[in-house]
Amino acid sequence: MKKRLLLLLCAATVILTGCWDSIELNDIAIVTGMAIDPGKDKKYQLTVGYVNPAQYSKQNPAQGAPVSIMTLEGNSLPEISAKMNVGVSRRLIFSHTRALYINETVAKDNGVSHFLDSLERSPQFRNDFNILITKNHTARDFAMINDPVERVPSLKVQKSIKTLLKSWGGDPRVRLTDFIDAIIAEGRSPVASTVVIEGDPKKGQNAESNMEVKAPAKIMLDGLAVFKKDKLIGYLSLDDTRNYLWTQKLESTMISIPCEEDQDDENPLYFDIVITNNKSEMRTEYKGNQPQLKVNIFSEASINSMQCQKDLSKIATFTELEKKSDKQIKNMITETIEKVQKDYGVDIFGFGEALNRQHYKKAKKVLPYWNEEFARADVEVDVRIALRRSGTRSKSFISDLPKKDAED
Amino acid sequence: MSKKLVENISLWQLAVLMFTFEIGSVAVVGVGTDTKQDAWIAVGVATVLGAGLVWFYVYLLQQLPGRNLFEMITFCFGKWLGKIIGLLYVYYFLYISARVLRDFCELITSVIFESTPIEVISITMVGICAYMLYLGLEVFGRTGEVFIPYVFTFIILIGLAILFSGEFELKNLLPILGDGFGPILKHVFPRLLTFPFGELVTFMVIIPYVSHFAKAAKVSVFTVLVSGFIIIYGTLIEIASLGARQMERTVFPLLSAAREISLLEFIERVDLIIVFVVMFGIITKVSVFLYGGLKGLEHIMNVPYRYMVFPISMIIGYIAIQISANNAEHIEEGIRFIPLYMHIPFQIIFPILMAPLLIWKVKKQKRRSDANGSR
Amino acid sequence: MVTFTFSVIFAGLLLMIALIDMFIWQQSFYQCISKLFALDQGANEGYVIATAAAGFIYSIAMDYRIRKNKRSQQS
């Protein structure tokens, strides 16, 4: 009996440990960023940036580059990434990828769907990395720029996007599955963030650049890339991105609004409001044969700065400022929507999906050619800002200054 | 030959087995994906119908208390015809258990153990099931009892975690019933009714061994309703977090939904919990089908089923690999062939045909025994 | 008896798979059967075949034991 048990235990150790898929921790390299460029001979050129773990040891951090990169060419991403070990000693693990940089020429010419499929199919990739379109420089450069604070460039980009989204809102919050969903959806077109390099990318690659106070090169966010199906067709500025986000899901933003509509250009006066809570709703309707796009926005805000001479302890001032901000924000958002309608003619906002949810029968008819319908639709934006409070001061000291008119 | 062992499981154990049986493979492959955002409605309709079906099965069993499906078949059709029909049922049960096993193997090989050969997973899993059944139905029931709290809490927690990580978008559920009830009904019958609910026909082998048989009908119908609710809950999670379009594309929807979880940027990558739930569900399901088949063989061949547990389960491990050459074939068989030509005859048509015969024979027997008693 | 059961179940299930394959692949019966028995080169089918063979040997041993028990009971 004992012998049998022993035999069983031996068999169990062999069968149950799952040794086929075991990889030791010191045999893996964690990839944080991937960059896709057009290849010279083959279809793509893939660059992976993987972490140098010695840099992160607490006791005696090694000197040297925090990440290391490797570039190869090939026809598909899985093929290239499996081949990476021609130059990398360890097995690459992609499940912690933070950023995917796509060169704008790839996105313009080939379209992105060919490699997105492999990312979605692979069980390694999670749905938590940012898709970034790189402008002006090759995507490869972006994977190499060091950052003094975060050290790993892709971590820096992701963190900066996350923080920007919380404080101001400049990233469409698009992840892989959302992006793919938007490509195949009839009532929505995909968008992605864009990044640019400010400074000299050659200098930024050097690990010693981390010693300098002013980094020689920096990765900066630069608004939105607009796609039609899976091809890049244009860009939106950072301000438009914020306005775009306002129609979707905005966490918080800061906006400055002129005190008077027709003020002199020499010394314009502004007041700032911070949006703390935002709720937006899209409605799409048909009036006869004319599509109507409606956005209802309700935001709670508080005043953060005041350059004009208004008395904030009075209700009338609050009402007046609310009205001004309503109008300003309404104009901004309408302008953005109309710009997208006119310049690109693709529905990045998801009005078609709203139509599908609200008027299913109508949507079934018009969705196949929805982008044309979107381009000719009337836009109506309804904004209601509720100013709640004004920081730790009620009246601004500026309002006690002698009035400008009195000086003259 | 050694005498037959009379095994008993409690009502609670029966409920646990039924519950895990129901949610097991639903958690792997997902249900109702063809009906897009209305999948949860389809599941609801199927649950109600399924509860009716289960009540019908127990009603049949109540006519002949203490006898299982195979003994009932022999009672109705006589010795030889009964043996042939019983053998068909045995083949059906064993084939489905191999299919379920293959479902799980596909999940493991394509998500977790990419380079482990699928054959090894199949053998180890079927080994566990065989060992459990070798120890007997009581051990099987107790195993279920031990694991059910984890399964239940994990499924509930996954849903809450998705809700709190902000991936839960109720917008995805709209428009409700956009195309009307037609597509839903088409999907419910035959596929949804037979896949998670009709398969409970196997429990016709287990229910007679419940200690309080009188309450079995109530308990099993109630369990089916509860598990139906859990399946609706799971489907809602899948639709709301993935969206209908993506749910259609994924092979393992609940697992993909669990991958979206990111709570406070601290609780992340919890998809292995789903794999745990799935693993236990699959073990239960394979074991129940295997037990059904073995009990049938016991009745037909007159050999205690414990002697046959290991050889037959080895065949299951082999068949699970041979059943299809690739995942696409496996899925296509599951959609085109199995529901129409296997589930419906064995789950619905045959029991319904058997019902009048059974009632008639029981009445005749009672009359005869009454006559005997009065004499 | 166990060996007999084993063979009946094994043959029956293989036949069933072959019939379903005929339906799905639209091939002749002979093709499907030969596909089942052809060893895929490179696939690890050997593992499952070995276990199935082990099951067969086990069932023979089981039959032997049953017979021995019966004889000892009779004597």
Automatic annotation (TrEMBL), chain A:
Subcellular location: Membrane
Keywords recorded for this protein, A-Z: Germination, Lipoprotein, Membrane, Palmitate, Signal
A Gene Ontology biological process term: spore germination
Membrane topology category: Lipid-anchor
First and last residue of the signal peptide: 1-20
Pfam families, per the entry: Spore_GerAC, Spore_GerAC_N
Domain Spore germination protein N-terminal span(s) in chain numbering: 21-195
Family to which this protein belongs: Belongs to the GerABKC lipoprotein family.
Protein name: Ger(X)C family spore germination protein
Organism lineage: Bacteria, Bacillati, Bacillota, Bacilli, Bacillales
UniProtKB/TrEMBL annotation, chain B:
Swiss-Prot/TrEMBL keywords: Germination, Membrane, Transmembrane, Transmembrane helix, Transport
Segments crossing the lipid bilayer: 12-33, 39-60, 80-98, 118-135, 147-168, 188-210, 222-244, 272-293, 305-325, 337-360
A GO BP annotation: spore germination
Subcellular location: Membrane
Record membrane topology: Multi-pass membrane protein
A single GO cellular-component term on record: membrane
Family: Belongs to the amino acid-polyamine-organocation (APC) superfamily. Spore germination protein (SGP) (TC 2.A.3.9) family.
Protein name per Swiss-Prot or TrEMBL: Spore gernimation protein KC
Automatic annotation (TrEMBL), chain C:
Transmembrane region(s): 7-26, 46-66
Keywords: Membrane, Transmembrane, Transmembrane helix
Name of this chain's protein: Uncharacterized protein
Keyword Transmembrane listed: yes
Recorded superkingdom: Bacteria
